[in-house]
Structures are given as C-alpha cells and as structure tokens.
Amino acid sequence: MLHPKVPINPTPTRTLVPLDDSSVELDVRPTAPVVCQHHAPAPPPMVRGGVHLTAGATVAAIGAGTAAVLVIGAVLVGMFLAISITAGSLAIVALVARSLLNTPRDRD
C-alpha cells in the first residue's frame, strides 16, 4: 500500500531535509536582486465625499422612515394582540372544560 517517507533529522536545524537525495537536483546559482525600474508617481487616491442630500430629499427620507416604522409597529401590535386574544380564549375554554369534566353530578 502507501508508505509515506518521513524525513529524519537527528539535529533540528532551520534547513530543509529532502525526502530523497537522488531524485532532487538543486539549482543553487546566485541570482541578481530584483530592482524596480518604475519611477512614475503614484496616482492620488480618490477622495469620495459623503452623501449630499437636498432639503427635500432629507424631508422625504425622514417621512419614508417614519412611515416604515409606523407600519411595522402597527403590524407587530396587531400580531401581539391576536396572540393575546387567542391565549385568553384558550384559557377560558380550558377553565370551562375542566369544570364540566370535574363536576358532572351537580348538573342533574
């Protein structure tokens, strides 16, 4: 099957030990350092301003936000009201059912 070759390094150093010396040929030629030949000035960074709204746009944005908050609030209040009415109705039904099941003799 597969048997991985694990390099054995008796003295730990910061050099890499190849797995198999016979299959790897290292090319150790000195190379010249890379020098940048580009001397053009870097373009200035783009300056982006903030959002500029006119007075009418500001009033419209405030009105739209207020309307959205009111509509969402009305929907949530309606949902909570429906849940509370349902819970109250179920509690009343449970009380009536319990009283009917516990005292059947008193109705005769």
Automatic annotation (TrEMBL):
Keyword Transmembrane (UniProt): yes
UniProt keyword terms in alphabetical order: Membrane, Transmembrane, Transmembrane helix
Transmembrane segments: 53-74, 80-101
Organism domain of life: Bacteria
Protein's name according to its UniProt entry: SpdD-like protein
UniProt source species: Streptomyces luteoverticillatus
